[in-house]
Design brief:
Blueprint (H helix, E strand, L loop, with lengths): L2 E7 L16 E2 L2 E2 H11 L4 E6 L4 H6 L5 E5 L6 H8 L8 E6 L7 H10 L5 E7 L8 E5 L2 E6 L6 H4 L3 E10 H9 L15 H7 L4 E5 L3 H4 L5 H21 L3 E2 L5 E9 L4 E2 L3 E9 L4 E2 L3 E4 L2 E2 L4 E2 L4 E3 L1 E3 L4 E2 L3 E3 L3 E3 L4 E4 L1 E4 L2 E2 L4 E4 L2 E3 L1 E3 L4 E2 L4 E3 L9 E3 L4 E2 L4 E3 L2 E3 L4 E2 L4 E2 L8 E2 L21
Parallel strand pairs: 1-4, 1-6, 4-5, 7-11, 12-14, 13-15, 14-16, 15-17, 15-18, 16-19, 17-20, 19-22, 20-23, 21-24, 22-25, 23-26, 24-27, 25-28, 26-29, 27-30, 28-31, 30-33, 31-34, 32-35, 33-36, 34-37, 35-38, 37-39
Antiparallel strand pairs: 2-3, 6-10, 7-10, 8-9
The chain binds uridine-diphosphate-N-acetylglucosamine (UD1) and calcium ion.
The site of calcium ion has 3 residues, from loops.
Length: 455
């Protein structure tokens, strides 16, 4: 029997107090909906359908999902109405798994458990017990069996005391679901067509409804406001860091690291506090990330050390590089092995050869730097003429003195030495000392400018 997944994502999410549709609020750097989609893709389904509405096309565009069937719910008349929009294209013989776009931490293993524990012609609801169930639909049982779900606003005093709640994850045979949805009414407190009303209809038709409990609350928490969003962020971060620790990655404090994307680590990697990883980051064996670093879409070679307070984006390093403290690597930086980039150095779109050093206070952009080069403190590549960017090439073994301006396009030969303070506008030959300075003079009898009448 086939499986169709329907993800409900049409609601506005008023409680977020935001212009962004709720399912596009970000968790670990990705929209909530993207998390639900990745979980859905781990389940072997014939069809993944997303019901969208509030936010319109923006929702589609924010999650690139060519494998998804998008169904528009023009007016958001409730969760039951939302599912109904997706039913005409859903094969009668399939089972339907309904997921909520605002329940992002659900795991595919839990869905698999629901599917195997539920006979194909019966129904299941994923539930969880809460100390404070306020706001959620309550699972009403009789003799242990699920009878119906009552929404918070429609629940009487006794029902409000029930601690078992509906997570919104529901499994049901498609043909039966279609029939029940057609009979939904909106005569409730919110005037909406509640999906949860089909539970009582199933029971009335003698279809068993299995209340299957989730292992943890974190996995099934629904995100309705910014506080819950922050709670989910912490829960997800804990899960990601746990996985990495199991693979042997060391964290000074697992609660003080953030992973917003994919972090792949080799052996014996150590990460100090307040490191933020975004996009796709790879850390080679034995790399060490000191405190307060942002590393985005970068690949660091084995035993590379990133000292405190660096901002690294779109960079690649070889083995045993040393970066920072206070360095900025921008997109297109490729460091070979054993390269040192020190404090207050900004580098963009530049390749640096083995063992070269740029240790202090420099801006290097659009450059090709050979191996064994020493770039002195305060060196600047003047790569931009106001209109175009130009290249600087520095040959192997060159020594650039402190405070040098290299006005691109310009080429410094292999083994060349550039005297400190030079403004180099023409290419400098190999192995020679090239200097460009005004002659130093001292003026005898010169007087400091003083206030009128004081000298
Ligand atoms: C819903 C459940 C409640 C459950 C809770 C779990 C119903 C009636 N209530 O309540 O029992 O405890 O989830 O988190 O189902 N949506 C649409 N179209 C609509 C309305 C909603 O697509 O017309 C989507 C929303 O975008 C959201 C999901 O359905 O992703 C749930 O809607 P929401 O309004 O958040 O329902 P809750 O009040 O949380
Ligand atoms: Ca919700």
């Amino acid at each position: 029997m086939g499986l169709s997944i329907i993800i409900l994502a049409a609601g506005q999410g008023t409680r977020m107090c935001s212009d962004l549709p709720k399912v596009l609020q970000r968790l670990a750097g990705k929209p909530l909906l993207a998390h639900v989609l990745s979980c859905s893709r781990e389940v072997a389904a014939d069809d993944i359908c997303v019901v969208y509405g509030y936010g319109g096309e923006a929702v589609k565009e924010a999650v690139t999902a060519p494998d998804v069937r998008w169904v528009l719910q023009e007016e958001q008349l409730g969760t039951g109405h939302a599912v109904q929009q997706a039913m005409p294209e859903t094969p009668d013989e399939n089972r339907v798994l309904i997921l909520a776009g605002d329940v992002p931490l659900l795991m595919a293993t839990t869905i698999a458990r629901m599917i195997t524990q539920t006979p194909v012609d019966e129904m299941a609801v994923l539930t969880v017990d809460l100390d404070d169930p306020a706001g959620y639909g309550r699972i009403v049982r009789k003799d242990g069996k699920v009878r119906c779900i009552v929404e918070q606003r429609d629940a009487d005093n006794e029902q409000q005391k029930i601690s078992e709640i509906n997570t919104g994850v529901i499994l049901c045979p498609a043909d039966k679901l279609k029939a029940w949805l057609d009979n939904l009414r909106n005569d409730n407190e919110q005037g909406e067509y509640y999906l949860t009303d089909v539970i009582a209809m199933a029971v009335a038709s003698n279809v068993e409804v299995h209340g299957i409990k989730a292992d943890t609350w974190a996995e099934v928490m629904g995100i309705n406001d910014k506080k819950q969003l922050a709670e989910a962020e912490r829960a997800l971060q804990a899960r990601l860091v746990d996985e990495l620790m199991q693979q042997g990655v060391g964290f000074a404090d697992p609660a003080r690291v953030d992973i917003r994307g994919t972090l792949k680590c080799g052996k014996d990697v150590f990460v100090d506090v307040n490191a933020v990883f975004e996009g796709d980051v790879e850390l080679g064996d034995g790399t060490k990330i000191e405190s307060n670093n942002l590393i985005r879409d970068s690949k660091l070679g084995a035993r590379t050390v990133v000292h405190s307070n660096c901002h690294i984006e779109g960079a690649t390093t070889g083995v045993e590089c040393e970066i920072g403290p206070f360095a900025r690597l921008r997109p297109g930086v490729v460091l070979a092995d054993k390269v040192k980039v020190g404090n207050f150095v900004e580098i963009k779109k530049t390749t640096v050869g083995d063992g070269s050093k740029i240790n202090h206070l420099s801006y290097i952009g659009d450059a090709e730097i050979g191996a064994g080069v020493n770039v002195g403190a305060g060196t600047i590549t003047c790569n931009y003429d106001g209109k175009d960017k130009h290249k600087t090439k520095i040959g192997d073994g060159a020594f650039i003195g402190s405070g040098v301006e290299l006005v691109a396009p310009v080429e410094i030969g292999a083994g060349a030495t550039i005297g400190a303070g030079s403004t180099i506008t023409k290419s400098a030959p190999d192995e020679q000392l090239t200097l460009e300075r005004a002659r130093q003079t001292s003026i005898k009898g010169w007087k400091k400018p003083g206030k009128e009448g004081t000298s």
